[in-house]
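step 3/5: co-fold with phenylalanine
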Amino acid sequence: MSAQRGEFGSRFGFIMAAAGSAVGLGNIWGFPTQAASNGGAAFVLVYLVLAFLLAYPVLMAELTLGRHAHGNMIAALAKVSRNGTQRGIGTLVGIVGIFTASLILSFYAIVSGWMLGFGAAYPLAAMGASDTSTWLTTFGESRNLLLMLIFMALTMVVVAGGVEKGIERWSKRLMPAMIVTLVLLSGYVLTLDGASKGLAVYLIPDVSKILSTELVFNAMGAAFFSLSLGVGTMLIYGSYISDEEHLPTLGAQVALVDVGIAVLAGFLILPAMYVAAERGVMIFNDAGGLLSEDTLIFTVLPALFESMNESGTFLALAFFGLMSIAALTSSISMLEVPVSFLVERFNWGRTQAAFVATLIITLMSAAIVLNFDDLFGLVITVSTRFSQPLLGFALCIYAGWVWRRDSLLTELAQNEASGELTLFMKWWPLYARFVCPAIIALILLRSL
Ligand code: PHE
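step 4/5: write tokens
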């Protein structure tokens, strides 16, 4: 491998970086609130099944393709192609991947900015700066723009630092802090009055909903989004793994951390909602369903924190700090997609690439802020519900059909001590070839 190419310095570093990418707003905000509005444990169950039976194999496709090519998605799809048409389509898929990663970052940075804003607002209010605090927590164009800019700048600084000194170093610092905070917070919230009602909603499935098309479609989107799939993030992270590492194990560890944290976050968010209800906060919408998404995080939880006085300030700081960290370790992985492309394809320096990519994505994000009602929801649906699964479909086709089986097996067998075909190596290529594309296509088609 070329000496200039970045590489993760350690196995732990890779797991923290990849799990850091996977664990984000999707786990701590998206997953629990979607569970709340999609039949509680019924959604959790379908999500778990899809995460292991669909998302994990697609994650393996990305990691293996990336490490094989030691390059970005376009380079990787070209490398396994066997003719010009396959290479052409691969390039197109790669471009859509880079564009989707940028699109995701452009809405993600807005929401992450709110997390930063709410995190700063509580200590500021406690110190008497109530005007600033109110401004930070009130929806408005200038606030949205400023916070988004700050978040994009943070993301850029980490990515410009490089794979080992930027991404890996910060993920290794931030992820353990995030996990400890999450465990402590959920442990505390579970002791409060009302928490058990939330727990029941989370853990008792509404079985009538399990096979609803909408639930399965949403759960698939959530699983793809949560494991950062389709857009080449995991592929590029895979390309930074040393050839000595055993990919199926690393992939399984990352998937387990990701799913584990989503499930754990459910033990925080749903009980917290019912604790809030116990204190008189409205947690149901007019239709009688649970409030979800932005109303939940930015209305229900703040109302809960306010009802708790000082300990509320402390909890709020911990909660929004946790969210900001989770968001940052994900956003750096999104920015790495266009950045690695610019570095590898045009030989740009990393700092220059990080700056230009950040600038373009910031402009896209600003366009969303300025046309919020029209664009925000649309961009989320297009990029996460449709583009990500479709790209996952394409990646399975490349790993399962285009890539020569012997070369694929050689890549997987690289560090198999026995040199034999393991169970994984026997089944996964077939699985990626037939089962994964079929499931994705079926779910997408049914939802149309
Ligand atoms: N997995 C991240 C989350 O759950 C989001 C993400 C999507 C990250 C795509 C990278 C690429 O929040």
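step 5/5: annotate
Residues 343 and 349 are 6 Å apart (CA to CA).
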